[in-house]
Design brief:
This protein has 472 residues and is an all-alpha fold. The chain has a single domain, classed as Hydantoin permease. It is 68% helix and 0% strand. It has 20 helices and no strands. α3 runs antiparallel to α11, α13 runs antiparallel to α14 and α14 crosses α15.
């Protein structure tokens, strides 16, 4: 079978473990999927927050973006390294920490995250296409981006990987062109480097947003490494994912900070079109196609997470390609409605959305990573993930659930948002360090809890699989 035939083949697997005989791919595929998928308009808009919302001067914005990205990518890449070992989607593996039913809360929140990112990308895609031609309305642009994303989701894993490999080269070249065009052709304003004044609150806010951009990938990053051969190894998978996501994020965010300082109204999409006049059609079209690639990833993982919820409630059922298609259509319809009717005040609403994600994703990533690397050392009884009673992990893991809720609550004094600012955040002049507190304290509480209340020994179950009852 030729490579093109393989890519175009409909993926049949969804949340089932991937057998060794069906494993394929190279570590370079992990670099390209995260590099290519990050070079898009939403990344540029997020980078602009450093100067438009957090009011940082250019070089301080760049430093904050780099620091936040490099720190946050550590957690993202640690999750990615789990895929080759376990061969299951990340949200299925979460049953090993929270129990079969206990995991439903986290999986449900993750589905909401996918809907939010998908809708945000649809709005930006529609706005960008409208910005280069009045003949395409924003709503029509939304539909175009949505349909492209839906098609890639239906075909699945191989096509999405191929899509992002192509976008690595195309989007990377266009991003470089945009930098050169803005600096060399359009020119920077004379006071460009003196606009805004450095402040600790804005710097920490930018670091937090950049770190969250990486942490937000944690719930689904191993979905794209689960087909990798076991011999890929955790270390190789880690670094390929780390540098792909870090470099693919830093450069477009820096471009966003540059544009944000040069536009008066904060409209980054129209600013990009104006500042690249002469090549704006090429730049916007390629980056919009990049949005469709990333949105396909969001929709694909949203579909897998939705199937995980259904399979948890109906353990004897195991959906394949048709189930993924139906789930994708349902999620697509919901996100499309959000995008079409929620375009007003997009930037402010998007900022609040990603800050909300920060508070609910951080405790989960702490529990998952501590459990995988320090408690179970990567050894899980995968068959138990698919049992009605949770197998050796049970229906609920009280330690994980307590640590997760504790991790959310303990962040509240450090939260700084438009809706609520905690007492500690007020003393820090509005600086939000809640994610750091959440990561550290949740990790400590969960690790101590696991030592106090003994976790199931996966190695024993792996050695005696025949003794584990079929709980359906």
């Amino acid at each position: 079978m030729s490579q093109s035939d393989t890519v175009a083949r409909l993926e049949q697997s969804t949340i089932q473990p991937i057998p060794d005989a069906e494993r394929h791919g190279r570590a370079s595929d992990l670099f390209t999927i995260w590099f290519g998928s990050n070079i898009m308009l939403l990344t540029i808009v997020t980078g602009a927050l450093a100067v438009t919302v957090f009011k940082q001067p250019f070089w301080w914005a760049v430093l904050a973006i780099v620091v936040g990205t490099l720190v946050g990518a550590v957690f993202m890449a640690l999750h990615s390294a789990q895929g080759p070992q376990l061969g299951v989607p990340q949200m299925v593996q979460t049953r090993g920490q929270f129990g079969s039913l206990g995991s439903l809360l986290v999986v449900g929140l993750v589905v909401v995250m996918y809907l939010g990112f998908f809708a945000s990308n649809l709005v930006l895609g529609g706005q960008s296409l409208h910005s280069i031609t009045a003949g395409v309305s924003v709503n029509e642009g939304v539909l175009v981006v949505g349909v492209l994303s839906l098609l890639a989701t239906i075909f699945g894993y191989r096509l999405i990987h191929a899509y992002t490999r192509l976008m690595t080269w195309c989007s990377g070249a266009v991003l470089l062109l945009a930098f050169v065009w803005i600096v060399a052709v359009h020119g920077l304003p004379a006071d460009f480097f003196t606009r805004n004044a450095a402040n600790g609150t804005g710097f920490l806010g930018t670091v937090s947003v950049a770190a969250l951009w990486q942490i937000a990938y944690a719930p689904y990053v191993s979905d794209y490494s689960r087909y990798m051969p076991r011999e890929t190894g955790s270390r190789v998978a880690f670094w390929a994912s780390y540098w792909g996501c870090s470099l693919g994020t830093i450069f477009p965010m820096v471009l966003g900070a540059m544009i944000g300082l040069m536009v008066a109204d904060g409209d980054v999409v129209n600013g990009l079109t104006t500042l690249t006049h002469g090549v704006s059609g090429l730049v916007v079209i390629v980056l919009t196609i990049g949005i469709a690639a990333t949105n396909a990833m969001n929709l694909y993982c949203g579909a897998l997470s939705s199937l995980t919820i259904v399979q948890t409630l109906m353990p004897s059922w195991s959906g394949q390609a048709l189930a993924r298609t139906v789930a994708a259509l349902v999620l697509f319809s919901i996100s499309l409605a959000i995008a079409l009717f929620g375009q007003a005040n997009f930037l402010a609403e998007y900022t609040n959305f990603i800050l909300l994600l920060l508070y609910v994703l951080v405790p989960w990533t702490a529990v998952n990573l501590i459990d995988y690397y320090l408690v179970c050392h990567g050894e899980y009884h995968v068959e138990s993930f698919f049992r009605q009673d949770g197998g050796i992990y049970g229906r609920f893991n009280g330690v994980a659930i307590f640590a997760y809720v504790f991790g959310i609550v303990v962040q509240l004094p450090f939260v700084a948002t438009d809706l609520y600012t905690g007492p500690v955040a007020k003393r820090l002049d509005g600086a939000d360090i809640s994610w750091i507190v959440g990561l550290v304290l949740t990790s400590v509480v969960y690790y101590v809890g696991c030592k106090r209340f003994v976790r199931p020994d996966s190695s024993v179950a792996l050695a005696n699989e025949a003794d584990v009852p079929a709980g359906i």
